[in-house]
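Reviewer comment 2.1 asked that we show a complete input and output for one of the modelled complexes. We chose the zinc ion case, as it is the one discussed in the main text.
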Amino acid sequence: MILRLVIGMIVIYLLFKLIRKGFPAVGGKPRPAKIQTPDAGEELVEDPQCHAYVPVSQAVRAEIDGKKVYFCSRKCLEQYQKVG
Ligand SMILES: [Zn+2]
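Response of the prediction step:
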């Protein structure tokens, strides 16, 4: 009888711990937001049209006046070429 009570209490305690873990705002310090960093070795290039930083592997490459230019999308590349 007492053993069952103890087991029941342990289960409730574990459940309580789990719930608190799932909701860090309820108790304890809020966790700092995870900062997303690009993969190691991934170079960031600036889009001269919208000034967004894009990883080289995802950037749209173009050669304008013999210069390599990177864009976040084809749309930016086209707009950049239109403007000059
Ligand atoms: Zn862009």
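Residues 2-22 form the longest helix (21 residues). We note this here for comparison with the apo prediction described in Section 3.2.
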